[in-house]
Structure formats: C-alpha cells, structure tokens
C-alpha cells in the first residue's frame, strides 16, 4: 500500500476520528450522517493517502493500529488548529471592516472621549467605530497587537509608558490634573475635608493598581512625597484600598474611605456640588497630559484623516 496521489479530504480525517472514538464502522457512519459504504471508502482512501493501515479491522471492536494511535492525536491537534485559524481569520476580517478602532483608558472613555469624538464627527464622516475601554496596560497590549489604531490615555513626561518606549507617535489633545480629594468632614463645613494630607495623624489613601497608567504616574511623581508610616506612631500615609480604575477609587472616596488622586475631568460635578473637596493645597496636584497615540504604519484613509484633523491644533510627538 503506497501513498495515493489524490488530494487529502478533511472529511476523511473527521471520519477517522469518529471511528477511533466508537470502534464500530456502522455507528461511526451513523454519527457522521453518511452511508456505511461511503464511510468505509473514506477510511480506506485516508489509509491509502497516509500509506499505512490505520485501522485493525480484525479486532472487535475495530481498533487503531500502532500507526493509527500515533496518527490520532496529531490529527486532533491539526483539526483544532484549523478551527482556531478559521475563527481568528473571521475575527480579523470583522475587525478590519470596522472603520476605526480606538482603545481608551477607563476614566477618559467616560469623560474626554465622548466630547472629543463628537467634535471629530462634526468635521469628518467616521463611519463604524469600535471602542475598547480598559487599563492602560490592556490598551497598550491592544496597540502592540495591532488590534486598535489609536490609544487615548493620560501621560506624563517623567513616567513613560510602553508606547513611549517604542516611540509610537502621539498628539496632546489637552491637559488634566490629578487632584487629592476627600469627602467633606461635616455638612456644616463643606470645604473642610474629612481626610487631610496636612494632618499629623493617620492619613488613609486610596491608590491605583499596578496596571493603571495613573498609578504609574502617581508612583513616579509622588514617590518622594508619600513616605511609609512612622513605625509605632500611627502617623503618616497608610494605603487602605487599591484599585485599577479611577472610577472605582472615586466611589471609595465618596464613601469616605480616604484620599484619592482623581482626574479633574472625572470629578468636575462632585467638586462643583461639594460632594468631594480638596484634601491638600495645589502643590500636591499632579498635572498630566491627555494623549492620543497612533500606529507606526500607514492606516486606513478614515484613520489617517482622523489623525490629521486631531493634529490640526496640536503638534505630533514622535
């Protein structure tokens, strides 16, 4: 028996796996919804293509030969990989059909992004838009994997992110500032914070987690200003809560749990209503940039037009 010259039919592989599972030609043919004679021809054709017997027909139930036992797991892996490739190819096709793919960090996706997008739509027909909101680390991954064309995030010159390190071009769309805030101490004293940095006592703070871009900026810019608590004194800064997203820290701050450095763009309403107040003088503020990163390579016509219009009032950084 030698290898045949005819092309391989993937149906033969599915038939082979069905037979290997049930050990009976009739039941395997029934499971594959084909007549048994046709099923048997498929198995024989596969063996001719491979060049060796894969099924021991003398055994009851039918069993795999040593060659068949070697062949089975490899074919299972092959078919699984083919299915995965099909799914990924379709996903890539669907994603390519979307005109714009933009990743935005959580806080900016709720505040700056909608207003900025409305401004862009007034100048350019954007078509279909896919937006993904997550931590900076996740947004960076999407950009590095070329799953998005743009990333909108906060940035700071002293705390470069991975896109900076790989010299992705970016525009500065605006400015923001991280402000240390707390709930008021008492309704009768709306400007007096419950928790105050100037206090000589225990100062509870709410901090960003490791994958947060704002956390990266905070740790860099305030690393020398927020010391560890003084041992045995109960004084100094004490981390009471850690979260990845500014929205979560905002919720914890509104619950009176401590001081959080929150983007001004996220707390304008709360500052205006007095639900949150400053917990320190402005010297504790951390100015940040609102940055718009793009892919290195040429993009679709719509994406390139968006970049050009976004940069019409600011300077591209490369």
Low-confidence stretches: none
CATH class category label of the largest domain: Alpha Beta
**Number of E strands:** 14
Q: Helix segment count?
A: 12
Globally, the shape reads elongated
What structural category do the secondary elements indicate?
alpha/beta
Radius of gyration: 31 Å
What is the domain tally? 3
Order of helices and strands: HHHEEHEHHEHEHEEEEHEHEHEEHE
What is the CATH topology classification name of the largest domain? D-Maltodextrin-Binding Protein, domain 2
Report how far apart the termini are: 64 Å
Give a written overview of the molecule.
- It contains twelve helices and 14 strands.
- Strands 3, 4, 5, 6, 9, 10, 11, 12, 13 and 14 form a ten-stranded mixed β-sheet that branches. A two-stranded antiparallel sheet has the order 1-2. A two-stranded antiparallel sheet has the order 7-8.
- β9 (202-208), α9 and β10 (236-243) form a beta-alpha-beta unit.
- With 318 residues, the protein is α/β, with parallel strands linked by helices.
- It has three domains: 10-95, Winged helix-like DNA-binding domain superfamily/Winged helix DNA-binding domain (Arc Repressor Mutant, subunit A); 97-174 and 290-317, 3-Layer(aba) Sandwich (D-Maltodextrin-Binding Protein, domain 2), CATH 3.40.190; 175-289, Periplasmic binding protein-like II (D-Maltodextrin-Binding Protein, domain 2).
- α1 crosses α2.
């Amino acid at each position: 028996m030698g290898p045949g010259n005819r092309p391989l039919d993937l149906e033969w592989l599915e038939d082979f796996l069905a037979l290997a599972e049930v050990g009976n030609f009739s039941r395997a043919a029934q499971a594959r919804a084909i007549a048994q004679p046709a099923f048997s021809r498929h198995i024989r054709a596969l063996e001719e293509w491979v060049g060796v017997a894969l099924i021991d027909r003398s055994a009851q139930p039918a069993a795999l030969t040593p060659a068949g036992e070697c062949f089975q797991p490899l074919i299972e892996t092959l078919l699984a990989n083919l299915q995965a490739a099909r799914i990924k190819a379709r996903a890539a096709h669907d994603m390519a059909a979307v005109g714009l793919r933009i990743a935005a960090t959580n806080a900016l996706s709720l505040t700056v992004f909608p207003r900025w997008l409305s401004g862009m739509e007034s100048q350019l027909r954007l078509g279909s838009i896919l937006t993904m909101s997550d931590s900076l680390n996740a947004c960076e991954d999407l950009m590095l994997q070329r799953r998005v064309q743009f990333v909108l995030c906060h940035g700071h010159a002293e705390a470069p992110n991975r896109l900076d390190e790989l010299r992705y071009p970016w525009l500065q769309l605006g400015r923001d500032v991280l402000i240390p805030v707390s709930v008021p101490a008492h309704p009768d004293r709306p400007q007096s914070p419950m928790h105050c940095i100037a206090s000589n006592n225990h100062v509870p703070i709410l901090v960003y987690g490791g994958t947060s871009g704002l956390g990266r900026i905070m740790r860099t810019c305030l690393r020398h200003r927020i010391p560890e608590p003084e041992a045995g004194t109960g004084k100094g800064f004490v981390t009471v809560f850690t979260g990845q997203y500014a929205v979560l820290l905002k919720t914890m701050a509104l619950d009176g749990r401590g001081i959080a450095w929150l983007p001004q763009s996220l707390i304008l309403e709360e500052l205006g209503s007095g639900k949150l107040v400053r917990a320190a003088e402005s010297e504790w503020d951390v100015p940040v940039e609102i940055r718009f990163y793009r892919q290195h390579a040429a993009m679709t016509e719509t994406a390139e037009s968006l970049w050009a219009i976004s940069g019409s009032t600011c300077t591209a950084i490369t």
